[in-house]
């Protein structure tokens, strides 16, 4: 039987047999004649491994041990995600323990191309209530749509039904800045102010839109998929291709400014919607990473083939950020956790414990856009350990 002892909030074992078993299982840190455990490790041993815990020689219940940590931030989320990883036969360790340095750089390169807009100039009228611009020059409006997929000529998937090209506010500002569009009833500065009043995060959204458009991507609304934008790779054109199929986007982009906060369940829902329609979910964090570091919760060992990695022979692969369904996460918090994982050369896993204590994992992979960018982009994929 595994024997633990508690003094204050420190949990340890001085029993020789227990220490041998736990060290072989990669639990705890040995200091002199005692093996010290984190609260998550101790609770797991009491909960799953039927360990006993004593205080002043008397047995105490597992609930009494857990009660001592009720003030700790997201303790249950940390414990449930730790437990789930251990239940899979894999090793999770606190971030302050020594481990072999990983030899990996989980970055995915995306293609890009140069955008060469037309030399002609078009006129437009901006409608404030709708945040839509109508191009008054029909031929040039059609050319912008056919050649650059800017705006919507006619109706969606039926460009022949109408003669007006309608630009959303991101497209309109982009063309104004490029000197292609002149608005008859509003100046550029007022357009930005009006859009910012309508949507407080407009500047962040536009920064991402412009970044991708400048690199040759076609960026359209992601409204149907619960995200800000959907993205087509460079070279995409509206209408049907040679095989008769309409061009379909394979990526959606959700902008998460560092100043914003979002309920985890709502955030996870957007990712699930994207995956349900077979689209890659891209998280955009505008602006460069700050120096603030958010402590990740655990360092994770995974497996090669069917065998679990041994921490004495292998390096960890992931860093875990433990979250709960009812928790809010901020853009800065997430960006900082991603940043710390990168510094450790680990790939970040978001581990979300729901109200039924089931854990869902999402893998975060950094995207590298050619020609540089001040923003950070990440693919968020469902992950099955």
What kind of sheet is the major sheet?
11 strands, mixed
Looking at the structure, the CATH topology of the largest domain is Trna Endonuclease, Chain: A, domain 1
Helix content: 25-40%
Q: Quick one: how many beta strands?
A: 26
Runs with pLDDT <50, length 5+? Answer: none
Mean of pLDDT:
88
Query: What is the count of DSSP helices, taking H or I runs of 4+ residues?
Result: 10
- C-alpha geometry: elongated
Radius of gyration, in angstroms, nearest whole number: 26 Å
First and last CA, distance: 30 Å
Q: SS-based structural class?
A: alpha+beta
At CATH level 2, the architecture of the largest domain is 3-Layer(aba) Sandwich
> What's the structural domain tally?
3
Sheet-strand content, in percent, reads 25-35%
- CATH class type of the largest domain: Alpha Beta
Provide an overview of this structure:
Strands 7, 8, 14, 15, 16, 18, 19, 22, 24, 25 and 26 form an eleven-stranded mixed sheet that branches. The model has no long low-confidence stretch (mean pLDDT 88). Helices cover 28% and strands 29% of the residues. With 385 residues, it is α+β, with helices and mostly antiparallel strands. The protein has three domains: 3-72, tRNA intron endonuclease, N-terminal domain (MutS, DNA mismatch repair protein, domain I, 3-Layer(aba) Sandwich); 73-113 and 217-385, 3-Layer(aba) Sandwich (Trna Endonuclease, Chain: A, domain 1); 114-214, MutS, DNA mismatch repair protein, domain I (3-Layer(aba) Sandwich), CATH 3.40.1170.20. The longest helix has 13 residues, at 75-87. The radius of gyration is 26 Å and the shape is elongated.
């Amino acid at each position: 039987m595994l024997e633990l002892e508690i003094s204050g909030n420190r949990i340890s074992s001085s029993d020789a047999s227990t220490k041998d078993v736990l060290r072989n299982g990669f639990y705890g840190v040995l200091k002199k004649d005692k093996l010290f455990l984190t609260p998550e490790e101790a609770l797991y041993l009491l909960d799953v491994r039927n360990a006993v815990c004593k205080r002043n020689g008397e047995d105490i219940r597992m609930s009494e041990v857990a009660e001592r940590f009720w003030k700790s931030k997201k303790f249950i989320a940390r414990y449930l995600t730790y437990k789930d990883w251990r239940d899979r036969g894999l090793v999770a360790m606190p971030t302050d323990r020594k481990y072999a340095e990983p030899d990996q750089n989980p970055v995915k390169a995306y293609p890009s191309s140069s955008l060469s807009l037309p030399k002609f100039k078009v006129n437009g009228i901006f409608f404030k209530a709708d945040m839509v611009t109508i191009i008054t020059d029909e031929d040039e409006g059609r050319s912008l749509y056919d050649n650059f997929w800017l705006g919507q000529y006619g109706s969606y998937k039926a460009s022949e039904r109408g003669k007006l090209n309608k630009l959303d506010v991101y497209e309109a500002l982009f063309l104004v800045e490029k000197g292609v569009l002149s608005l008859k009833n509003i100046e550029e500065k007022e357009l930005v102010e009006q859009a910012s009043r309508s949507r407080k995060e407009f500047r962040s959204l536009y920064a991402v839109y412009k970044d991708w458009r400048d690199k040759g991507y076609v960026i359209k609304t992601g409204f149907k998929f619960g995200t800000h934008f959907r993205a087509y790779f460079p070279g995409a054109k509206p209408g049907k291709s040679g095989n008769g199929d309409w061009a379909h986007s394979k990526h959606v982009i959700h902008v998460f400014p560092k100043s914003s906060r979002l309920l985890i369940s709502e955030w996870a829902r957007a990712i699930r919607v994207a995956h349900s329609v077979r689209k890659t979910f891209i998280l955009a964090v505008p602006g460069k990473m700050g120096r603030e570091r958010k402590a990740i919760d655990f360092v994770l060992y995974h497996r090669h083939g069917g065998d679990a990695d041994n921490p004495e022979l292998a390096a960890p692969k992931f860093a875990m950020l433990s979250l709960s369904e009812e928790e809010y996460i901020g853009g800065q918090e997430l960006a900082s956790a991603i940043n710390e994982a990168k510094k450790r050369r680990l790939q970040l896993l978001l581990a979300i414990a729901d109200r039924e204590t089931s854990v869902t994992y999402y893998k975060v992979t950094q995207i590298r856009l050619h020609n540089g960018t001040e923003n950070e982009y990440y693919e968020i994929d469902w992950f099955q350990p």
